[in-house]
Amino acid sequence: MIYVFDAYCGWCYGFGPQVAELDRDPGVSIRVLPGSLFSGARSGPIGDYPHIPAANARISAATGVRFGPAYQALLADGQVSMDSDDAARGLLALQAVAGHGRDVELARAMQEAFYLDGLSLSEAETYRRIAQRLGLPADDVEAAYAHPRTHAAARDRQAQVAALGVAAYPTLLARTPAGLAQVGNPTATADEIRAALRDQ
């Protein structure tokens, strides 16, 4: 399966626990690709997006996730910049060091760093903290985050997402005999997604 998410997407944060449950199923392999929700002209201070607090309330009500006090303070301040390109680079840096099989765990750790701990996903120090939490070599992750090869790889992954025709996040794609098919929606449970997969 392919999970297309954006680390700055609140609905992806809400959907994350269900994806994590699926990822634990025997025989399931989920590859995570980064989106471009706040890329280019759309990147900028979180305060430029006044709809976010109300959206967060809807996400909490629909999925049960909570937004931490540190994130709430960051949101109230309004100054931190959301840049999906930096977050994509961070994901690729973590993936490069962690190796295969931990994509969902890495994506979740990034979203918890932002939505619980209020950390910027444009700062190398954030990825050091994530690495330490997950038992990865922090120096290697920081070096990968800064490396031009990681920049290029992140752009390549975002281009793959565009080529798949994905324009909304989160999007979960399953491989079927007819090709890739979207399964579930941001409020779907893991059981509902399993049922949809059986119908493919």
From TrEMBL:
GO molecular-function term, one example from the UniProt record: oxidoreductase activity
CDD domains, A to Z: DsbA_FrnE_like (cd03025)
One Pfam match: DSBA
InterPro entries from the UniProt entry: DSBA-like_thioredoxin_dom, Thioredoxin-like_sf, Thioredoxin_CS
Domain DSBA-like thioredoxin: 4-173
PROSITE patterns: THIOREDOXIN_1
Protein name per UniProt: DsbA family protein
Organism: Pseudokineococcus marinus
